[in-house]
Amino acid sequence: MKITYNKLIRDKIPELIEKSGRKHSVKELNEKEYHDALIDKIIEEIQEFRESDNEEELADIYEALECLVELKDYEPMHIDYLRLKKREAQGSFNKRLLLEEVEEEES
Predict the structure, then answer these.
(1) Could you name the domain of life of the organism this protein comes from (predicted)?
(2) Inter-helix orientation angle 31-52/55-71, to 10°
(3) Who contacts 94 (Cβ-Cβ below 8 Å, separation ≥6)?
(4) Whole-model pTM over 0.90
(5) Residues 6+ apart with CB under 8 A from 65
């Protein structure tokens, strides 16, 4: 029985599948495909974390985000700088505030 996944996997998964005696097929993604697959993986892992509240799913989110930062050739320390800069200017999310509505002036 074949199961179709069509999703980004960790690098060692093919050899783990082989060691278990099963056959598989994989393909290497080009840069655009990899970019899109990483975003899909982040969304998938966020959904899994939402359902399970499991810290391993959170670790998967971090791993996929780190790969995306590397793919985009962003400097991790600069990303952290931007995060801290936004925190200083706008705060964090620690107060658990949900904006319900804003009354705008009529023009």
Answers:
(1) Bacteria
(2) 160
(3) none
(4) no
(5) 42
The residue count for the chain: 107
CA angle 23, 12, 43 (to 5 degrees): 100
In sequence order, what DSSP letters do the residues of 72-105 get, joined into one string? Answer: TT--HHHHHHHHHHHHHHH--STT-------PPP
Distance CA 91, CA 87 (A): 4
Residue pLDDT, tens place only, 1-42: 999 999 999 999 999 999 999 999 999 999 999 999 999 999
Token pair 């093919």 is at which residue?
14
CA distances from 94 to 30, 49, 53, 91, 103 (A): 38, 19, 18, 8, 24
Rounded Cα distance between 9 and 27, Å, is 11
Alpha-carbon span 57 to 46, nearest angstrom: 7
